[in-house]
Design a protein that fits this description.
By secondary structure, this protein is of the alpha/beta class. It has helices at about 20-30, 45-50, 95-100, 110-125, 130-140; strands spanning about 15, 55, 80-85, 105.
Amino acid sequence: MKEAAGEANMTVLVIVLIAIVAAVATPLITKLMDNVNFDSTDKIAGYVSDADILIDTTPVGMSPHINDEAIVKAEDMHSDLVVNDIVYNPNETVLLSEAINAGATPVYGIKMLLYQGAESFEIWTGKKAPVEVMEKTLRKTLDLSR
């Protein structure tokens, strides 16, 4: 990326929790990114204070296991953090509840489900996806209020 004159260099730290075997994940991710570090989820709290974005792709907190313990607690988050949990049922997972308590910005899993479906619809039909109708139907089907 070329930097314009007078612009500051910005680094964004993104933490992605991946629910696949490390032997598979390591070669895959390192092919995609040069600066990837792997560590235990037990140590995640130590990284969150410097992170800008936290994306949880694990099934932790997914129905029917809605009382699972959050991987990251509110006291380890900060208000500038964006927290995305791809779990869509329940809509507000234990991780997103912790994010809200910390004043962080939650991103709900229904959005990923919705836009994956919309993209698939467009690929299969060649037509623009009716995203609003799809979202309304998803929310009704999953009995989601948010």
